[in-house]
Specification:
This protein is an alpha/beta fold. Helices cover 34% and strands 14% of the residues. It has two domains: 1-37, no CATH class; 41-220, Rossmann fold, CATH 3.40.50. It contains nine helices and six strands; from the N terminus they run αααβααβααβαββαβ. Helix 5 (103-110) packs across helix 7. The structure holds zinc ion (2 copies). One zinc ion is lined by residues 4, 6-7, 9, 30-31, 33-34. One zinc ion binds at residues 46, 48-49, 51, 57-58, 60-61.
Amino acid sequence: MTVCLLCQQALKKRILFSDLLLLRREQEGICSDCQEKFSPISEIHCPTCFKEGEEASCTDCLYWSNKGLEVSHESLYRYNEQMADYISRYKFIGDYLLRTVFATELRNYFKNKTDYTLVPIPISEKRMTERGFNQVTGLLSAAGVSFVELLQKEDTKKQSEKNRAERLASKQSFSILANVDVPEKIILIDDIYTTGATIQLAKQILMKNGAKAVTSFSLAR
Ligand SMILES: [Zn+2]
Ligand SMILES: [Zn+2]
């Protein structure tokens, strides 16, 4: 019996016409009840970072804009309770099976972005040892999307353990890996976008090393 990766209830085997919409999800291992609790970002969102419910630039984007920094970020889902629970089980508890849950959405999203090189935000060596995998490359690999690792990260306090002021004041902890060529057009990929501090730091390093256009994407905002 196949069960839902998130709630362990049995997944339907027989497919009725009315289930066709759900089929795609069940192939990736979660039931429709769990799927419905994820909340896709609606039409009303910050034009530059996709923050839900903002009609104009949000306070985070204004903060960057006042520093002369541009934000060009897109995201698929709101960081609601269901997403927080998913991220915590996938990333912090380390359930690697959960990397497949958004495979179809991610594959569809990146289908038309072939002009860009996808660059995942790295995790530090210490985090890699603790977790055993980079949650971002896990999501991309499960989606069958190709990416290039260009960055490395020094060990610092986890972004998730910092308050807003600490996040915004984060010091540069990224550098370019040895012997890589930095392409001109890049989409930086992360699992969650909170204030944008991580993306801005990674972007800064890439621009200094030859990138001309760097946008970003996260599963959740
Ligand atoms: Zn479920
Ligand atoms: Zn914004």
